[in-house]
Design a protein that fits this description.
It contains 19 helices and 10 strands. By secondary structure, the protein is an alpha/beta fold. A 6-stranded mixed β-sheet has the order 6-7-8-3-9-10. Strands 2-1-4-5 form a 4-stranded antiparallel β-sheet, with no helix packed on it. A hairpin with a 2-residue loop joins strand 4 (390-395) and strand 5 (398-399). The two termini are 67 Å apart.
Length: 576
């Protein structure tokens, strides 16, 4: 799993190599400094070396310390560059994979969970990677080098390590074995907290309209408390481990001072040697503490690595066909042949059943049905936002699965139920439909969508900043902008999913008239709740509980379809 993710180091691999190389040089110098210090004490001060030897060795020690500092700073810089580059490449790979997800793939992960994986989990992996190329290299080399030097100074006194090191090793193993599940649970709590924040920010108008701020505050507090509790539960082992290690280190130093002091008193050990020996003990025990932190970080990163790998390893439900011959969509004809569809992978409950529908190129088709009759599900099969569970959906006489995704989706323009605009100007948003659209084409599309007049009423016109999510325009204006954006694609098929619900009937009639005059060759599918929105269509399809119960023109359905008559007359009464 880690090996699979390490390939995202990519072009930053040279820094990942330089970081451990410089850290090795730093460690070698740090281990050598206590030896020089011992020589200064035993030979320069207490021996025959004199002031000259002391000054010379002192200057050497200062030089070694400065060089060690420089190498440490370089290793930190190299580790930071490689770690941030690794995180950048990993995030880019994750985001790219999410962009390739079908709607079914997205349904398996909540959007809040994907955000956590792209932020918190990648940050955890970045920290673990930086720790691996620095601390995970530094600690074992420091440990081995310091043990070697300590044994070289006094093998008998080094036996103290035989007690301290196993105790520390057992403590580290005990913590590692219990931490993984706790950290994994903590990250799941983060997902829920992000979901709460995301939901609240999206629905902020509803929250304020119903005066539910206090209620939402309480719910957020509950989620935040859950994260805090899970975090404390996960990290209290780490917190407990630090004092245990400090106690072991201090007891080891006390034992060395006691035994070493007696050896000095007996004349079998020098003061300088004891001083350097204590320094090596500190280096050894600090190396063990750093190793324990590396292991703990690996436990946390393992949970994050698993969650990241789940996204990267997710099998795409909808992919380009093999051996794509560069097929183009020649016209806007659509055929549903014995189509059934289920959102569940096993297909236990069908949302669409036995759909047979044939739409000629250039026709305008209306779809009516009650809430939950799967009208939106039906049209989502056309651009392959989902694939049919059974049966075949054809466009221009070919199975939609024979076209590349770019081709089929480029030929179909959808204005969704939920109108989405992005941060930026009106012009920027419209160019989502066609990045190369000229000003004349943009204006023509907006005229057809009845958006040109209100756009020009703004002081900055088409360069008006919409704000995040288009907060500066009304619901009806959003819908018209989304229609204009779809028209700029010059599609073969245009799908309007209840996209004039916030537009008054007079403006809606103008939009329909503009479609008939300016986009007569485009196959148009209109999902609507108002009969007036579809009564002039060439074909009206009536859906109920995922099935087509009838289809025909307005006059034909008014004669024979009970559902259509009920809807028509109830709405006419409402008008009256």
């Amino acid at each position: 799993m880690y090996r699979k993710l390490l390939k995202y180091v990519g072009e930053y691999g040279k820094y990942a190599i330089l970081a451990p190389l410089t850290i090795i040089g730093e460690v070698v110098l740090e281990v050598a400094i206590p030896f020089v210090m011992a020589r200064i004490i035993d030979y320069g001060i207490c021996g025959d070396g004199g002031i000259g030897y002391t000054v010379k060795m002192g200057l050497l020690m200062v030089g070694m310390a400065c060089l060690s500092l420089a190498l440490g700073a370089l290793s930190g810089r190299f580790a930071a560059k490689s770690g941030m580059g690794f995180a950048k490449n990993l995030r880019r790979a994750l985001f790219g994979k999410v962009q390739d997800f079908s709607f079914r793939n997205v349904d398996r992960f909540s959007s809040a969970s994907l955000v956590t994986r792209l932020t918190t989990d990648v940050t955890n992996m970045q920290n673990a990677f930086m720790m691996m190329i620095r601390m995970a290299i530094r600690s074992p080399i420091m440990l081995v080098s310091a043990v070697f030097m300590a044994v070289r100074i006094n093998p008998v006194l080094s036996l103290v390590f035989l007690v301290a090191i196993p105790v520390l090793g057992i403590s580290i193993f005990a913590v590692m074995s219990k931490s993984y599940k706790r950290f994994e649970n903590m990250l799941k709590k983060y997902d829920l907290l992000n979901a709460r924040v995301q939901e609240n920010l999206i629905a902020i108008r509803v929250v304020k309209a119903f005066v539910r701020e206090e209620y939402e505050n309480v719910r957020f507090q509950e989620e935040a408390d859950a994260v805090r509790t899970a975090q404390i539960y996960a990290e209290k082992l780490v917190i407990l481990m630090m004092p245990v290690m400090q106690i072991i280190m201090n007891l080891t130093i006390i034992a060395v001072l006691w035994i070493g002091g007696n050896m000095i008193a007996e004349g079998t050990f020098a003061i300088g040697e004891l001083s350097s020996f204590i320094t090596y003990i500190t280096q050894i025990l600090m190396s063990l503490i750093m190793l324990s932190m590396v292991f703990l970080n690996l436990v946390l990163s393992r949970a994050s690595a698993t969650r990241i790998s789940q996204v990267l390893d997710e099998k795409l439900d909808i992919v380009d066909p093999e051996g794509d011959e560069g097929l183009e969509v020649s016209d806007g004809s659509i055929d549903f042949e014995d189509v059934s569809f289920s959102y569940a992978e096993g297909g236990e409950r069908m949302s669409l059943s036995d759909i047979n529908l044939h739409i000629k190129s250039g026709q305008t088709v209306g779809i009516l049905g009650g809430t939950g009759s799967s009208k939106t599900t039906l049209v989502q099969l056309i651009p392959r936002l989902y694939d049919a569970t059974k049966g075949v959906v054809k466009v221009a006489g070919r199975d939609v699965r024979e076209y590349s995704l770019d081709t089929i989706r480029g030929a179909v323009a959808m204005v969704l139920q939920k109108n989405v605009l992005f941060s930026g100007t009106i012009r920027d948003n419209l160019k989502w439909g066609n990045p190369n659209a000229t000003d004349e084409e943009i204006t023509a599309a907006c005229v057809s969508a009845q958006a040109d007049d209100f756009i020009k009423s703004f002081p900055d016109g088409y360069d008006t900043d919409l704000g995040q999510g288009g907060v500066n325009v009304s619901g009806g204006q959003k819908q018209r902008l989304c229609i204009a954006r779809a028209l700029l694609k010059n599609p073969k098929i245009l799908i309007l999913d209840d996209s004039t619900s916030a537009v008054d009937t007079a403006t809606e009639a103008k939009i329909r008239r503009a479609f008939n005059e300016d986009h007569a060759g485009v196959t148009t599918i209109i999902i609507a709740q108002r009969v007036t929105s579809v009564m002039e269509c060439d074909l009206i399809v009536i859906m109920d509980e995922g099935r087509i119960v009838d289809s025909g023109t307005h006059d034909e359905l008014l004669e024979r379809c009970a559902i259509y008559k009920d809807v028509y007359y109830s709405q006419q009464k409402g008008v009256a």
